[in-house]
Amino acid sequence: MSSSISLSTKIAGSVLSSCLYNASGPLCSTAEELQAIGKSHAGAILSKSATLQKRQGNEEPRYVDTRWGSINSMGLPNKGYEFYAQFAQTAQAYDKPYFMSVSGLSHEDNLHIIKELANFENIAAIELNLSCPNVPGKPQTGYDFDQSRYILELVCAQAKQPIGVKLPPYFDMPHFEMMAAVLNDFPISFVTCINSIGNGLVIDRDSESVVIKPKHGFGGIGGDFIKPTALANVRKFYTLLDKKISIIGCGGVKNGADAFEHILCGASAVQIGTQFMREGTGCFERVAGELTDLMREKGYQNIESFRGKLRDIT
Ligand code: ERO
């Protein structure tokens, strides 16, 4: 009977045989890493966020995993957008869409990259990252609604590929509404909720020290700790955005039940970040198996049967 349960989904017009794939960030920067995702059970390949030029990123240590999750201040280490655009050719060997994450250091950089990407084939969609918390001196665009509108006007006028947006977490109801009002004015295909919770602080009590070097220890928080915030953002944008905009859930997913919760809140696909960093590409098959088992127990044949159907207490 298990063969009749499908995890397939559609994002930006592309079919994914599994709704589970990698978050941009961990283990998706080099050709080897991207190929490993290609060979795995992940439903898509998503690149590390690309800048105009390649970057070394911040000083190490810059990523630390704790019992409840991760803190990072990578500082956008990446090989530059041309590398990730060219990888689209290699990605054709795998039977899954290749998405490219873009995170220019300025609006001009983002626009330049988006225009150049129009010359490349086989990039199924672009995930425009408006939420990098770790570049010293650069605020997160997603927390400035006017700036978000401005960059989306520029990018949507030029993009050849479908555009999605990676959002930071929001915590206040008026902020959800303000961002949704911006997003509903543009022909975007998806939003990914959420990036890491920016500028948290993890400390080591024994050494009385911060645990990562950049920015005096401040960094983006991921993993278990952020799941309630991620679910709230998925749910709120699912209710506020036009139904033609898909929601991709990201945050605190380490097993099939976590993925189920994201889908119940409205996610059409679910990304795995901190747990992928821990476990490697095997997590996509394991979590898919756990999600399939849970769906079988509950009598669901596909994710549309329960997507978005979270109930209130009456
Ligand atoms: O530091 C980073 O490279 C980074 N870390 C995150 O948690 N989220 C990001 O979006 C990001 C860089 C774009």
Fold topology:
Elements: E1 9-11, E2 14-16, E3 20-22, H1 31-39, E4 45-46, E5 63-66, E6 69-72, H2 81-91, E7 98-102, H3 107-117, E8 125-129, H4 145-158, E9 163-167, H5 173-183, E10 190-193, E11 197-201, E12 203-204, E13 209-210, E14 218-222, H6 227-240, E15 246-250, H7 256-265, E16 267-272, H8 274-279, H9 282-298
Parallel strand pairs: 3-16, 4-7, 7-8, 8-9, 9-10, 10-15, 15-16
Antiparallel strand pairs: 1-2, 5-6, 6-14, 11-14, 12-13
Helix pairs in contact: 3-4, 4-5, 5-6, 6-7, 7-9
Ligand ERO binds at residues 25, 49, 72-76, 103, 129, 131-134, 195-196, 220.
Describe this entry's structure for a reader:
β8 (125-129), α4 and β9 form a beta-alpha-beta unit. The chain contains nine helices and 16 strands. The longest helix has 17 residues, at 282-298. α5 (173-183) crosses α6 and α7 (256-265) crosses α9. It has helices at residues 31-39, 81-91, 107-117, 145-158, 173-183, 227-240, 256-265, 274-279, 282-298, and strands at 9-11, 14-16, 20-22, 45-46, 63-66, 69-72, 98-102, 125-129, 163-167, 190-193, 197-201, 203-204, 209-210, 218-222, 246-250, 267-272. The chain has 314 residues and is α/β, with parallel strands linked by helices. The protein is globular. The protein has one domain (9-305): Alpha-Beta Barrel (TIM Barrel), CATH 3.20.20.70. Bound molecules: ligand ERO. Ligand ERO is lined by residues 25, 49, 72-76, 103, 129, 131-134, 195-196, 220.
In short:
This protein is an alpha/beta fold and 314 residues long. Helix content is 33%, strand content 20%.
